[in-house]
């Protein structure tokens, strides 16, 4: 059975994605700080199918972290066929008050870690004829006010998706999913007013984490001739930004 590694999989979109892929994959649940949630998810999945889920911890702060994480993930089940780069920091950085530490964190989690983890796992993915799915954002194309660094990092992730799709073909497919209004931030911030956003979504509602998870699973399991693409799952929101 193929193995999928999902970063940031203890909660929210990562958890939904892990549960969707677990239907026909062994899953490696990556977490940074959410050990309890990650281990509870692993226990739940292993109750459904014994020996089918494992957890690994990493801050993914450096290239060495990513290599160690890749090695640990492969050790869980002997191979990795699917990499889902989901882990992400998100918060506003209004110009004039942004710090270098914020730059490092937002660029690190949204762009640096996905690149170096993809690089570390590229040989294993090629051996299995596997794939990478990156979690981008509709604001990679249309910037969100007050979120310059985050938007720039996601824009870089979109270009990385397209570039790696060329570089790793034909053995590894690389695609991205760009969520719209799915889960709301815990704290409202400039440019992210819930009522204003909902009013501009053609589908007139927010999405559900399963909408993202199903799209990731489609790209993993049912799209052997799709690579280098970014699929917006946003209820039409990107048409009306």
Describe the structure concisely for a colleague.
This is Pteridine reductase. The protein is of the alpha/beta class. It has 7 helices and 7 strands; from the N terminus they run βαβαβαβαβαβααβ.
Supply the key terms.
7 helices, 241 residues, Rossmann fold, 7-stranded parallel β-sheet
Structural summary, described in words:
Helix content is 45%, strand content 15%. The longest helix has 29 residues. 45% of the residues are buried. The chain is built from 7 helices and 7 strands, in the order βαβαβαβαβαβααβ. The radius of gyration is 17 Å and the shape is globular. The termini are far apart. Strands 3-2-1-4-5-6-7 form a 7-stranded parallel beta sheet, with helices on both faces. It has one domain: NAD(P)-binding Rossmann-like Domain (Rossmann fold), CATH 3.40.50.720. With 241 residues, it is an alpha/beta fold.
CATH fold name, please? Rossmann fold
Order of helices and strands: EHEHEHEHEHEHHE
Helix-and-strand structural type: alpha/beta
Beginning-to-end CA distance, first to last residue = 42 Å
Number of domains: 1
- Low-confidence segments: none
> Class, according to the CATH hierarchy?
Alpha Beta
- Averaged pLDDT: 93
Q: Summarize the main sheet.
A: 7 strands, parallel
Q: Could you give the count of β-strands?
A: 7
Strand order of the biggest β-sheet:
3-2-1-4-5-6-7
Helix content: 40-55%
The H-level CATH homologous superfamily, spelled out, is NAD(P)-binding Rossmann-like Domain
State the helix count.
7
Shape: globular
| Share in β-strands | 5-15%
> What would you report as the Rg, rounded to the nearest angstrom?
17 Å
């Amino acid at each position: 059975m193929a193995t999928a590694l999902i970063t940031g999989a203890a909660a929210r979109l990562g958890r939904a994605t892990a549960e969707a892929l677990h239907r026909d994959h062994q899953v490696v649940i990556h977490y940074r700080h959410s050990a309890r949630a990650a281990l509870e998810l692993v226990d739940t999945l292993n109750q459904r199918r014994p020996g089918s889920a494992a957890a690994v911890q990493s801050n993914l702060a450096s290239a060495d972290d990513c290599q160690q994480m890749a090695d640990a993930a492969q050790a869980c089940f002997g191979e990795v066929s699917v990499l889902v780069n989901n882990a992400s920091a998100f918060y506003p950085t209004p110009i004039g008050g942004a710090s270098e530490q914020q730059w490092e964190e937002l660029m690190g989690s949204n762009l640096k870690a996905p690149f170096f983890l993809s690089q570390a796992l590229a040989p294993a993915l090629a051996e299995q004829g596997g794939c990478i799915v990156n979690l981008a954002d509709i604001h990679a194309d249309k910037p969100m006010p007050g979120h310059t660094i985050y938007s720039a990092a996601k824009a870089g992730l979109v270009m990385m998706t397209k570039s790696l799709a060329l570089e790793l073909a034909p053995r590894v497919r690389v695609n991205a999913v760009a969520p719209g209004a799915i889960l709301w931030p815990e704290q409202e911030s400039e440019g992210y007013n819930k009522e204003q956003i909902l009013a501009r979504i053609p589908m007139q509602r927010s999405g559900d984490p399963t909408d993202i998870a199903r799209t990731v699973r489609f790209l993993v399991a049912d799209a052997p001739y799709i690579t280098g693409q970014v699929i917006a799952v946003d209820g039409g929101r990107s048409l009306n930004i």
